[in-house]
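FORM 7B - TANDEM STRUCTURE REPORT

SECTION 1: FIRST PROTEIN
SEQUENCE AND TOKENS:
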Amino acid sequence: MAEIVSTKRDVSALRGESKVSRIPIKVVPTEPKRKPDWIRSKVPSNPEVSRLKTLLREHQLHTICEEAACPNLGECFTQGTATFLIMGQICTRRCPFCDVAHGKPDPLDQNEPAHLAKTIAAMKLKHVVVTSVDRDDLRDGGAAHFRECIKEIRTQSPNTNIEVLVPDFRGRMNVALEVLAECPPDIFNHNLESIPRLYKAVRPGSDYQWSLDLIKKFQAQHPNVPTKSGLMLGLGETIDEIKQVMQDLRDHDCQMLTLGQYLQPSRHHLAVERFVTPAEFDDLAVVAKGMGFEHVASGPMVRSSYHADLQAEGKHVS
């Protein structure tokens, strides 16, 4: 699913080597490995891709998937689907797997919720995912901005299904959950990304148990709203460690799961340790279903918001 971000600021100097220079684990620049035959992306040359890009430019929006070289850009743009990134394109975290820029974010655009809702209405989307950068500079971590976006979308597109992919609201969980309770989404998604052993290297500044607790507390407050999480594979985790994280998610009432292959954005990002085979993804999907996940999307090209509309309908995605 195409991820969209409104932007006017040049952030090229806030990526790459400068972004990861101060994280706890030193990232040694490594050229990305050659991808196996089962990892292939479509070239975004379809006329629908051009049409969607034109529409987004008219609404002063840009795609983060273009900047991050998402492998699903061509497929998602062709289908006219979208995931919107709110609160700017500058993140307060330095996660070395992610190509989003790090630095001091711009002030929130108070017109963004209405602008976002207008764009969604114009695109006539049935299912949208709203995600954001981490905003540790805000007292509520950005929860109120999520709430206002949900409100505006429901006002202008009452039949649109709204999924939010939220940050961890580090140090602000209770406040954030109180704010979101005023206007909860249709699906609540928060990605664990990796196994606890690798958190210091993969998610510096984040806490594994904190993220699990966020999912569990939201589900307790909103038992009728499905909860969802996702993992990237290929960063050095073992199959047993993946299964343990899956069980931890179930123990914390997570109902939907995505599993996908990590791909290195540049030589300055974490290296791929191995490419997980399609058969292994299939096996993990079977295990996850056996654990009680209501829906599992597991495959090399799967991303958290990839075919999120189909995931929400319980259809197979791989």
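SECTION 2: SECOND PROTEIN
SEQUENCE AND TOKENS:
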Amino acid sequence: MDVMKRVPIKEQEPLVRAKNFEEVCLGYSKEEAMEEAARCLNCKNAQCVKGCPVGIDIPAFIQQVKGGNIEKSYQVIAESSALPAVCGRVCPQESQCEGKCIRGIKGEPVSIGKLERFTADWACENGIKPTPAAEKNKRKVAVIGSGPAGLTCAGDLARLGYDVTIFEALHEAGGVLVYGIPEFRLPKERVVAKEVENVKSLGVKIETNVVIGKAVTIDELIEEEGFEAVFIGSGAGLPKFMGIAGEQANGVFSANEFLTRNNLMKSFKDYDTPISEGKKVVVVGGGNVAMDAARTALRLGAEVHIVYRRSEAELPARVEEVHHAKEEGIIFDLLQNPTEILVDEKGWVRGIRIIKMELGEPDASGRRRPVEIPGSEYEIACDTVIMSLGTSPNPLISSTTEGLDVNRWQCIVAEEENGQTSKAGVFAGGDAVTGAATVILAMGAGKAAAKGIHAYLSAKK
């Protein structure tokens, strides 16, 4: 065994997986996981823990895997994370825990994410559940949204003995985990549904099809329903567009709509919610959501181009997702930007006009600013355009809640360390506060808010 190199992990072959929605990564066996865990140096001052937004005791859980004690390993993770099988699949470990791994200085970092995934999957297959609170205190807390922030906050509060109810606007719990991330990256029934059930096993109740701000307001939850505190983890589901000509044409989608129809409403299985199955699709954007939309369109049978205005070095998507997209045949048109969507006489997309770019001086984000090259415009023929330019929070909740401050992007203003908003007893975190970000950062915000709510309610006794 070469301790400087990771134990390889099996994946579906690119040309096979490009035609199905089965999970790309096949995971470690127990023997492979134990071998990979043996590479961990078990650092006393573990930098990997400092890189984890939810503070998992990474060396401790890996040492248990190394010894073959997988149930104990799961319990170590479950003390800090409500969604380990999810995080092991979709967290950007390369820029967080694995990015700080000492083993990675001279070799390859330990595959922390794949070991977390293995542990959580093993626990699920063997019926292992997180440990619920020994006693309940009967104090009611409402959580709005059942995405990663809401599930984490609810789980942590339930462990502390609170009576927690999650209110979810859609018909299925999971938030972005069910509507935003494709099946081939995050299986819904085998992974997401089981993690939601684990949170419910702690005593959390989930009410679906409840739109806060319409069915009931936050003020009514507090004043009429007896909830002593509320956590807003409603995410950021309002898509952004470029404002260019032709965006209203048939065949133009936001990535949110395209992915929701496929992931939550199963349009790829000939359900009653079909989505246009383009033969040539252009995805505008370079983040993880753009990769998800492009790889989904590919699996529906399209030729797919990703148009991004910066170079590959500036792509915000995870390196692994870009690598997988290239392997599967996605075409990357980099340093290019749309100027117009071309529409036929019946109102359908027939193409997209593109201008080439070059990189200038760095902008406020620290990345070099893309600058148009005059006279470089050309057209790409296509029948579908998917805009993946980010999202912002829906203003419904903030506009129906008295005394809740928002910023100019309609994000709720909340304290980073505890989630406290401008309204007493109301806390918030995740994409509703930061705008679109990662699953693990939303979970970190949910944990911080749970601590804040506990401190707030403890002081109210």
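SECTION 3: OBSERVATIONS ON SECOND PROTEIN
The CA atoms of residues 314 and 366 lie 10 Å apart.
The first strand starts at residue 140 and ends at 144.

SECTION 4: SIGNATURE
Preparer initials: ____
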